[in-house]
Amino acid sequence: MKNILYAALIAALFCTLAGGVWMLRSSSSYSKTASSEAGDPLGFSLLALLYKIAATPVSAEFVPPAQGKAALADLPNRSITLFENGAEVTKIPIISIGKPGTAWETPAGNYEILTKEDLHFSSLGNVWMPYSMHFFGNFFVHGWPYYPDGTPVGTGYSGGCIRLKTEDAQVLYEFVDIGTPIHVLGGEGVRERTQDSSSAYYLTKGGDRPTVSASAYAVTDAETGALLFARDANTEHSAESVARLMAALAAVEVVNQFAPLSITFSSGDTDTVLGDDAIALLLEGNTSAIEVFRVRAGAKRFDAAMAGKARAMGLTQSTFGSDPLIAATTPKDMSIFARYLYRNKQYFFKKTSVPEEEITGARGLVHTVVYPTITLGENGVYRGGVIGSSSGDALVLMDLPLSEFEKRPIVVSLLDSKDPARDVEALAEFTKNHFVHRPQKSFVKSVLSKEGESVLSKALTFLQSAALAHELKKGEGLRDGESRVILSP
């Protein structure tokens, strides 16, 4: 009974704070009608509003296949676990990985073993790599590398590959086959924690939904995966920003970043730049930079890398065509993409967090790359992102003061907007004004201190109303998606 009253109390808090039980509608105002958005996993549900916003764990759960072999490369814990028919076979220590936060950070995601060589020569590092297993782009799992004269490479971070002791690499090499799944778990640069069930997002105010021109959007927590609110999050639109990000991601993972590239600036002048500056031009949408990277990697290989990376991240609602600057996606997939970058490639957010970046080519030509600027008001911190002006889309990371002691990493993903920068700012302001992230008990205590014991009677009233609503629904034979029960405050 205590748990029931506690749950009812939480529900009553919303009645108290908002003057009723409400949901976000597609229109501009809140409705006191308890309805559901059936079929939309990113839509609001009644329970999410009454109690808390549901969240997924930070760490993607890895479930080994019941049949066959698989490997889990856990980068934060520096280990590779081998599985066969669902059971753990052995665990191998990882000695070195790509440095977190850099362009050559070891890529997380779902991959498979593409090739195996007992001794592979890397033209990028000019080293021999024993028991080499290729899983994506320029990335391999292999034994300890050595130079042509036999000298082992030094310790420290790798260029992105997963380095093992040579004897351990042999164990892995003899275990896996071509096509064996390998799940690379990243998140090295992000504190590792799952969403504590005692903490959650709460929607604390009624009012109007923000007025934005975007046809579809989603606002999510980059750390926990919690969705705060959305509009048509599964609806597909063109997205220049996602195309640029995916092209840049493919470029850093399939092309040698230390080789000079001849790129034409927007001024029409051509100069030679190195990888980091070339990536800035990619993020700017420079078509010359795109083509140079595609030619260097091979167009088919580059395009396949973009599509393969989308699969590795679990983007099931995105399409990348032969033109790397054209993509179609949904706010749901954009949120997944942003969370992947937040956990595994913060390099891209950091690079775009400044207003502009000056690039100087080998001939001395100077070009200024201008990144989006977003105004977030008091206590908001812009952490980077991209905006597609021609297609009206945006993917932006920011820190907002939603928690008592810390800011929360929030992602705004939107499509089909007439003014994406202004829409991002409007959604950010709405989030600051209407959501808090609190431990559940702390949230209840804060409301009790304001409302007093009268809130308990409101909780009981809510329970009675809910029971009556349930009976009405049963009596009318309505399906779940058809419920239109009015709950009194």
UniProtKB/TrEMBL annotation:
GO terms for biological process: cell wall organization; peptidoglycan-protein cross-linking; regulation of cell shape. GO terms for molecular function: peptidoglycan L,D-transpeptidase activity; transferase activity. The keyword Transferase applies. Pfam families: YkuD. The active site is at H142 (proton donor/acceptor), C161 (nucleophile). PROSITE patterns: LD_TPASE. Residues 69-185 form the L,D-TPase catalytic domain. GO terms for cellular component: extracellular region. Keywords: Cell shape, Cell wall biogenesis/degradation, Peptidoglycan synthesis, Transferase. Pathway: Cell wall biogenesis; peptidoglycan biosynthesis. The keyword Kinase does not apply. CDD domains: YkuD_like. This is L,D-TPase catalytic domain-containing protein.
